[in-house]
């Protein structure tokens, strides 16, 4: 039962998804003490699957000595990274001589072993080969823009995993996100390409978990979770399933999938320099089983894409910075042979306007203004300068915003040319300022659902529910510019420092002339 009113999206962050106390039913899980390898917790389906109750018994009795020896060698002792994994195929007494996939990992004082049972209704999809993966990575390497790389990654990941749809989902600095590439079965007419989604769709604790643990696969959204049971001595310490492949996902998220028309799914983390840059998302309209080798291949591909993103973004940034540093040194040279910084920065071959893709720039000296390009009128600039002198904390020598009218409502009429503002103070007295303006980028942002109501109130034990509608919701974004980058602020400050030298020289000259 859903009540219609929206609730605070931060409620979503409170669900402890790393300790759900249950797993998905295609696997069995046993957890053992790291030192003694005595089983202290297991999933309730172990007895059926393995014909025995392992609680309180030795791990070796269940797994055999080969795997247990490798667990000892690799996962016991000090300094083992959480999530460190050992994989093997083991033949269990109950598995009729067929090998099952076993994966063991360490988390704190526990060894957690997952055994993958053949899913009840495996969708036959061939396992990825080494060659498939290598070819896919080769094609990714050939992509020369981010858009192209994302499109290739989506296409290759879908070919590998067989999902109806693969999306490349990219987070923005506020953790909203957008689907920047989509590769799908043409028969599925729903498209999420280009749509934006609010941060609460993938709440903070989920993003934190996805930064540590790289992939999630759900075979069948409508699965019945299998609860974990523990020996009485350990029943109070829930088993941390952060790194468990078969971790049961948040029921809120499964409801979200239902609302999206998604059954089988995956998400693989795209980590760039240790930060969660985005997710490779897989959607299937029916249940969808992905074999272990293919899951591994999808993760390798997401890593390769992350590397390509890093290369492309750092190359672009490097080129942009080089161009700016060259311009900056040109301007500094001009300043060095000048007694008048205003003319050095506004009247020579290169000017302030060449920096930072600004459309307008200005210098302010006491009460005089020099303008370049598209800026507010001089009187407004003087007013802005006074506001900056009063508002910017004394310790800082610059100010930057992409939404100036929010901080300074009187500037709202100038939003068209001055939504973005970067200002640098030249001198401690703040008589002199350098200003750069960026125009509004009037944008319509199309959200996948109304972003003002991402979360609905539930009733009874279910406090929150995801929105049910993913109808396109168009937001007109006004008064916002492209943001200035931190390195651009650094260059602005460095330039202001060079200007200060000219101002001091000027002042000395005037003193000499008049003194
Ligand atoms: C998790 N939310 C997720 C995940 C995705 C999304 C991809 C990762 C889980 C997975 O592997 O499937 C969201 N899926 C999307 C988005 C698109 C998509 C944005 O396809 C767009 C293309 N979610 C809500 C609300 C709450 C919420 C309101 O919408 C909370 C009240 C919670 N989402 C939520 C939680 C998880 C999640 C808790 C973690 C699931 C888990 O790993 O246990």
From TrEMBL:
Domain of life of the native organism: Bacteria
Family statement drawn from the similarity comment of this UniProt entry: In the N-terminal section; belongs to the phytochrome family.
Protein's name according to its UniProt entry: GAF domain-containing protein
One function term, GO molecular function aspect: ATP binding
Domain Phytochrome chromophore attachment site: 145-292
Gene Ontology terms: biological process: detection of visible light; phosphorelay signal transduction system; regulation of DNA-templated transcription
Keywords for this protein: ATP-binding, Chromophore, Kinase, Nucleotide-binding, Phosphoprotein, Photoreceptor protein, Receptor, Sensory transduction, Transferase, Two-component regulatory system
First and last residues shown, out of full length: 141 to 655 of 862
Coiled coil: none
């Amino acid at each position: 039962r859903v009540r219609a009113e929206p609730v605070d999206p931060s409620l979503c962050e409170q669900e402890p998804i790393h300790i759900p106390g249950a797993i998905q039913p295609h696997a069995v899980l046993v957890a053992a003490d790291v030192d003694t390898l005595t089983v202290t917790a297991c999933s309730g389906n172990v007895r059926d699957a393995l014909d025995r109750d392992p609680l309180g018994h030795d791990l070796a009795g269940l797994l055999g000595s080969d795997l247990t020896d490798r667990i000892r060698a690799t996962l016991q002792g000090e300094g083992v990274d959480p999530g460190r994994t050992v994989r093997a195929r083991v033949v269990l007494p109950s598995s009729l001589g067929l090998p099952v996939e076993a994966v063991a990992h360490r988390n704190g004082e526990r060894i957690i072993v997952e055994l993958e049972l053949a899913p009840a209704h495996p969708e036959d999809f061939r396992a990825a080969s080494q060659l498939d993966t290598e070819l896919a990575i080769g094609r990714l390497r050939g992509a020369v823009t981010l858009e192209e790389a994302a499109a290739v990654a989506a296409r290759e990941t879908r070919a590998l995993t067989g999902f109806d749809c693969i999306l490349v989902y990219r987070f923005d600095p506020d953790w909203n996100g957008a689907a920047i590439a989509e590769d799908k079965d043409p028969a599925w007419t729903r498209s999420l390409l280009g749509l934006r989604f609010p941060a609460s769709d993938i709440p903070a604790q989920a993003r934190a978990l996805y930064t540590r643990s790289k992939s999630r696969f759900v075979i069948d959204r409508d699965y019945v979770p299998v609860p974990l049971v523990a020996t009485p001595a350990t029943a109070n310490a829930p088993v941390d399933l952060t790194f468990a492949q078969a971790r049961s996902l948040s029921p809120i998220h499964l409801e979200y999938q239902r609302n999206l028309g998604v059954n089988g799914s995956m998400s693989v983390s795209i980590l760039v320099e240790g930060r969660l840059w985005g997710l490779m998302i897989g959607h299937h309209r029916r249940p969808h089983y992905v074999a272990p080798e293919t899951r591994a291949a999808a993760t390798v591909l997401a890593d390769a894409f992350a590397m390509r993103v890093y290369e492309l973004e750092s190359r672009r940034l490097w080129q942009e910075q080089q161009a700016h540093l060259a311009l900056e040194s040109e301007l500094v040279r001009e300043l060095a042979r000048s007694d008048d910084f205003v003319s050095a920065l506004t009247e020579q071959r290169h000017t302030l306007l060449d920096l930072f893709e600004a459309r307008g720039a200005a210098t302010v000296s006491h009460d005089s203004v020099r303008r370049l390009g598209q800026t507010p009128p001089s009187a407004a600039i003087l007013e802005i300068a006074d506001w900056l002198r009063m508002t910017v904390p004394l310790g800082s020598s610059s100010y930057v915003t992409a939404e100036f009218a929010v901080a300074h409502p009187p500037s709202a009429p100038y939003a068209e040319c001055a939504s973005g503002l970067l200002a640098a103070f030249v001198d401690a007295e703040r008589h002199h300022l350098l200003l750069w303006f960026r125009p509004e980028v009037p944008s319509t942002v199309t959200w996948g659902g109304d972003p003002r109501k991402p979360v609905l109130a539930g009733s009874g034990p279910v406090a929150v529910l995801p929105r049910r509608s993913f109808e396109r919701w168009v937001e007109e974004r006004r008064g916002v510019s492209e943001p200035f980058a931190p390195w651009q602020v650094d260059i602005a400050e460095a330039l202001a420092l060079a200007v200060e030298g000219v101002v001091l020289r000027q002042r000395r000259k005037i003193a000499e002339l008049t003194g």
